[in-house]
Amino acid sequence: MNYALIFLAICLLGISGYVKQTLGMARAVISFITMVMIAGLIYVLTMKLTGGDKLVTMLYLFLSPVCGLIFTLMVIPSKR
User: Fold this and answer.
1) How far is Cα 31 from Cα 26, in angstroms, rounded to an integer?
2) Cβ-based neighbours of 69, under 8 Å, separated by 6 or more
3) pTM score, whole prediction
4) Which of 7, 51, 57, 63 could form an S-S bond across to 46 if both were Cys, CB 3.0 to 4.6 Å?
5) Going by C-beta distance under 8 Å and a sequence separation of 6 or more, which residues neighbour residue 29?
6) Shortest CA distance to 47 belongs to which of 9, 78, 3, 1?
7) What DSSP character marks residue 56?
8) Distance between CA 30 and CA 24 in Å, rounded?
């Protein structure tokens, strides 16, 4: 469980770094905070729905960086 949380933190920081390079520091901080909030919400909901099954919860937690990256890519302004 600890290794999965460390890997999740590295994923969140990596995506925030990518956002910083493409959109700037302010968007990167907002993206990181949003992904942490999504991860917290996913953790609470899946722990309640699965009755405390940590394996299923950890699998669903990795949706947080994916959602953050998708949200970020959807709002990148087109460069003309």
Assistant:
1) 9
2) 15, 18
3) 0.79
4) 57
5) 16
6) 1
7) H
8) 10
